[in-house]
Amino acid sequence: MSRFALLGAIVLGGCMSTEPTDAWRDRLDEPESTRSRPAVWQAAGRSVEGRAIEIQTLGMGPRRVLWIGSIHGNEREGSFATEALPGAFLAYPGLEQRVTMTMIRDLDPDGTAIRRRGNARHVDLNRNFPASNFHPGRDRGFRPLDQPETRFVYELIKNDAPDLVIVCHSSQRGQSFVNYDGPAWPFAARFSRISSYPVVHSNELDSTPGSLGSWLGHDQGIPVLTLEFRRGTDPARAWDETRQAILSTLAMR
Ligand SMILES: [Zn+2]
């Protein structure tokens, strides 16, 4: 299994917290959030159109987890979880000491701004990673990592060397489920048991050349857990359904 060297964290910009714009964010008043410091998102990269790609890091433990709140601009179902998770993380006994979690708020802020799957160049970022099955194309990029958003997460992963990557998507299969790549079966099984979201294996889904899971999970042997929320699920409900499963998965040794 090849792994990246731990070179230290990168934070390139200053604080760029943005104001909530969706009504469901008013529900971000759960007990965990009120017991802990407010979320501090920092601009650490830039999109094609210059929007901030924001991150924050929580905890100080030896296990390193990367959370990606969204990678497709029209998939916002995991966004409530991304806002609520820092508070829940800090309130969970012992988690800060066991885990260092870096969170990317939204890898595709340009797509999110207009609720489109791809970035400002219409490239599907989850097809632009340097996986062995990368397939060039106008909507995938002509070379791996030829988009600033994928270069950003590539560098972050190279520097942070995560032990587990969790990424949020939404699915049009009519159900919420969890999928995984690489040696992530124990995480998927735990998540599924607690959330009741079924595990759908990658061979049951359409192939995803150049995806994060293909690159990191399949090629690099780094566990990737993909949370697929049913398209259209209320983001607050998605968090309610998965909060315990997410925290329990993060706490796994
Ligand atoms: Zn997606």
Provide an overview of this structure:
It is built from eight helices and seven strands, in the order H-E-E-E-H-H-E-H-H-E-E-H-H-E-H. The protein has 253 residues and is α/β, with parallel strands linked by helices. It has one domain (23-250): Aminopeptidase. Helix 2 packs across helix 8. The longest helix is centred in the C-terminal third of the chain and has 16 residues, at 235-250. The chain starts with 30 loop residues before the first helix and ends with a helix. Residues 1-21 and 29-36 have low confidence and may be disordered. Zinc ion binds next to loops.
Number of strands: 7
What is the fold named in CATH at topology level? Aminopeptidase
Q: What letter string, H or E per element, gives the SSE order?
A: HEEEHHEHHEEHHEH
Terminal Cα span: 19 Å
What name goes with the CATH superfamily?
A: Zn peptidases
Q: What is the rounded Rg?
A: 17 Å
Structural class: alpha/beta
How many strands, what sense, and barrel or not for the largest sheet?
Answer: 7 strands, mixed
What count of helical segments does DSSP give? 8
What is the averaged pLDDT score? 89
- Level-2 CATH architecture: 3-Layer(aba) Sandwich
